[in-house]
Amino acid sequence: MTSIPERNSLVNQTVLCVQDGIAKGKWIEWLPAERILCEDLQISRSTLRRALIELRRKGVIKAVYGVGNRIEKIEIGKASSKVAHDVALLTPAPLDRLRPAQTLWIDELRAILSERGIQLHIINGQQYFRPRPKASLDRLVKQRPHACWILLLATVSCQEWFAKSGVPCLIAGSCHTGINLPFCDLDHRSACRHAAGILLKLGHRRLAFFNQKLPLAGDIESEQGFFEGVNNSNHPEAIVTSIGHDATSLGIIQSLKKIMFSAHRPTALLVTNPLHYLAVVSGLSYLGLRVPSDVSVISRDDDAFLWFYTPEPSRYVVSSRAYARSLVHALIEIIEGSSAPIEGSKIIPKFIRGSTIGPATLRDKN
Question: Which residue of 198, 221, 301, 330 has the fewest C-beta atoms within 10 A of its own C-beta?
Answer without folding.
Answer: 198
